[in-house]
Amino acid sequence: MSTRSPSKKRPKAQSHGFVICVKTAGYKASLEPRKLYEVLSDADAAKHDQVRIVDESGDDYLYPAGLFADVELPQAIREAVRKAV
């Protein structure tokens, strides 16, 4: 199960970039294969091999990093994707 962020108790994290979902093992109801997700910086999560992902609701959740692959997008595309939310 994903872990919901206590975002009301901490300052908004900075965007770290984007990943694409390559596996949904154990998270089929929460993740979509081949979907692009925004990642928020979270050093504590990284220490535990997890990533903090923003979903469609705008909330962020922790997931195992192995479910995703990093994606490098040109800056213009990154900005357009972030504005589309």
Structure write-up:
The chain has 85 residues and is an alpha+beta fold. It has a single domain (3-83), classed as SH3 type barrels (Roll), CATH 2.30.30. The protein is built from two helices and six strands. It has a six-stranded antiparallel beta sheet with strand order 1-5-4-3-2-6. A hairpin with a 5-residue loop joins strand 4 and strand 5.
Write the layout of secondary structure elements.
Layout: E1 3-4, E2 15-21, E3 36-40, H1 43-47, E4 50-54, E5 60-64, E6 68-71, H2 75-83
Antiparallel strand pairs: 1-5, 2-3, 2-6, 3-4, 4-5
The name of the CATH topology is SH3 type barrels
- Sheet with most strands: 6 strands, antiparallel
Order of helices and strands: EEEHEEEH
Question: How many beta-strand runs?
Answer: 6
Overall pLDDT: 84
Strand order of the largest sheet: 1-5-4-3-2-6
Helix fraction by DSSP (H/I, runs of at least 4):
10-25%
- CATH class, named Mainly Beta
CATH architecture, by name, is Roll
Number of domains in the coordinates? 1
Radius of gyration: 12 Å
Looking at this protein, list some descriptive labels.
85 residues, alpha+beta, SH3 type barrels, 6-stranded antiparallel sheet
Structure in a nutshell:
The protein is α+β, with helices and mostly antiparallel strands and 85 residues long.
